[in-house]
Amino acid sequence: MPFGLPNAPATFERLMETVLRGLPSEACLVYLDGIIIVGRTFEEHLNNLRKVFERLQKANLKLNPKKCRFFQKEFAYLGHHISSEGVKTDPEKLRQ
């Protein structure tokens, strides 16, 4: 995407929705400039990763490894703490 494009996150989101169309939300979620790939088991997660990677490759899109995090059991995203236990408000955001 061109550097400095003012609406780059929204453009990315629309592109990813097109590229990943048909994959269930239980496999991956796209919001603005991020893709979250999930699975109930490690095997399901690997399968979902493979599906997403195949779609990205078919669209000739590449990932920046420095911006990727793989096999995270929990993480903070958009002010929330996401884990197998569910979604909670990120405690760091409550202190601000």
UniProtKB/TrEMBL annotation:
<dbReference type="InterPro" id="IPR000477">
    <property type="entry name" value="RT_dom"/>
</dbReference>
<dbReference type="InterPro" id="IPR051320">
    <property type="entry name" value="Viral_Replic_Matur_Polypro"/>
</dbReference>
<dbReference type="InterPro" id="IPR043128">
    <property type="entry name" value="Rev_trsase/Diguanyl_cyclase"/>
</dbReference>
<feature type="domain" description="Reverse transcriptase">
    <location>
        <begin position="1"/>
        <end position="82"/>
    </location>
</feature>
<dbReference type="InterPro" id="IPR043502">
    <property type="entry name" value="DNA/RNA_pol_sf"/>
</dbReference>
<protein>
    <submittedName>
        <fullName>Retrovirus-related Pol polyprotein from transposon 17.6</fullName>
    </submittedName>
</protein>
<dbReference type="Pfam" id="PF00078">
    <property type="entry name" value="RVT_1"/>
</dbReference>
<dbReference type="GO" id="GO:0071897">
    <property type="term" value="P:DNA biosynthetic process"/>
</dbReference>
